[in-house]
Write a structure and sequence with these properties.
The complex is a heterodimer of chains A (about 280) and B (about 290). Chain A is flat. Chain A has a domain of about 160 residues: MetI-like (MetI-like fold, Orthogonal Bundle), CATH 1.10.3720.10. Chain A is built from eleven helices and no strands. By secondary structure, chain A is mainly α. Chain B is α/β, with parallel strands linked by helices and about 290 residues long. Chain B has two domains: about 140 residues, Periplasmic binding protein-like II (D-Maltodextrin-Binding Protein, domain 2), CATH 3.40.190.10; about 90 residues, Periplasmic binding protein-like II (D-Maltodextrin-Binding Protein, domain 2, 3-Layer(aba) Sandwich), CATH 3.40.190. Chain B contains ten helices and ten strands. In chain B, the strands form three sheets. A five-stranded mixed sheet of chain B has the order 7-6-8-5-9, sandwiched between helices. In chain B, strands 2-1-3 form a three-stranded parallel sheet. In chain B, strands 4-10 form a two-stranded antiparallel sheet. In chain B, strand 1, helix 4 and strand 2 form a beta-alpha-beta unit. Classes of the chains: A mainly alpha (about 280), B alpha/beta (about 290).
Chain lengths: ~280, ~290
Amino acid sequence: MLGDSSRRGVVLSTTSTVVVLAVLVGIFLLAPGSAQVRHTFFNPTDMWQSFVGDPKAGYYSVGEALWLNIRMFVAAEILILIFALIVAVIRQSTGPVLLPLRVAATVYVDVARGVPLILIIFALGYGLPALQLAGISDQSAAVYGVVALVVSYSAYVAEVYRAGINSVHRSQVAAARSLGLTQGASMRYVILPQAIRNIIPPLLNDFISLQKDTAQVGLLGAIEANKAAEIYSSTVFNYSSYVVAAILFLILTIPLARFTDYLIRRDQARRLAGAGQ
Amino acid sequence: MHRIMITAAVLALGAGLAACGSTTSGSGSGSGTSASTGAAAASCSNASIQKDLYTKGTLTAATDKPVYPPWFSGNDPANGKGYESAVAYAVAAQLGFKKSQVTWAYEPFNNSYAPGPKKFDFDINEISYSTARAQAVTFSDSYYDVQQALVALKNSPIVTKHSPADLKSYVFGDQVGTTSLQFINSQIQPSQTPKVFETLNDVKQALQTKQIAALVTDTPTAEFITTEIPGSVVVAQFPSTGEHYGLLFAKGNKLVTCVNKALATLKGNGTLAKLTAQYLKDFTSVPTIQP
């Protein structure tokens, strides 16, 4: 049973949402160029044609092309999780012998985070084939794209890992070492399990971003969703295909975003429960 | 002199040279009638088209950056050299503009069909006419009839093996927005998906690094590319599919009627043929093969 005040709250919030939406839709529909914009961006015929595709008419299915984005995303995500962890652990290491590795890892993170993804894609996508190395230079554009995504995103994710590792209280390390665990073992069994739990929300945030950035691989000639939309658009001079691609990307990313929210809420609830005990 | 040209244009239209439908020829005959009264050599005199111009007093042509031979020369559309630059200035002269009254705007291809007002009178950028495209923009009649051609590295198999059946086995590449992709998929029908690149430079790079077996583009561009990539050749060109380049206008721009008359005149008096010979002559010696 809702109380009077909370019922009133529901009515008010619903009304204000409806009014705001109505005003926005009204502005859109009444704008002088509205009909033209709706035809160019939201034409149902064009949206459907670009979704199903027709190679003989010069364009590919945006829906089918999304499958390439999904495959690139999954492959890149797995590699990033592994590679970034290695980089993070190296950067956190303290042994004097490991100094060259630490320096290399630091330089890598600085460079890979600082250079725009699109330039990394260009450099690897056109550079690696030009080297004419057997086994490396004859891969598909999607493979170079995944490598570029891994190079760029691992730098971010390594820093997320590192923040997670630093968020575990130093007393945990001290306790682990005093139990006789080696430095490696305390990292593996004490620090990382706690660290990773803390960083799951920011990690997922990076992966939502990664899902969209697979679209940049289209630059190398691979026909992923955004490229398919561009081809459609430039073939028939209508942008509705981009809206189709946008909707498809939303369908991909929104569930992950909601899942992240859920994890954050659950974690907060657990912490609060823990504090009460 | 001016009136003679317009009369010539009207005659050309009457002779059915321009395959542009009833609208154009209708207004063409209208101006023909009034041309004799003098009042309206009218419909296409420099004074009477001023109201349709993007900027009064100047004809604003647009194209992409960079621009390539043989369509342009020295990456400078304003020098009057190269086929498209020369055509633009020839059209301008027909409409009564001096060379100094023509200005050039930068218009990336992907922006050229965006809705809303355009910042040019016409865009000349090797843009092919199609009925679907004509729903979003207005095209002039043809100023160049296009054939697609194949560029490959000299020592690659496609140079010798290009029967229609052989062609299906190669990986082709083209630039996004060109009609070459449609040609590849509808005419060659290869078994592997072609690669589609953002710029011509990217396609060239892909050819050099053997990411693609051959690139497909119009014959003049193909010939130009072989001068840029060491060890590349134009393998052959394909028969025409009726494709042609047109000047691109904002949808419903009235200026197109007069530009079509100018183009008809330039066709009728041999100017276009002369410019083709001058700038695109090397491009007629390429063998034609079946897709």
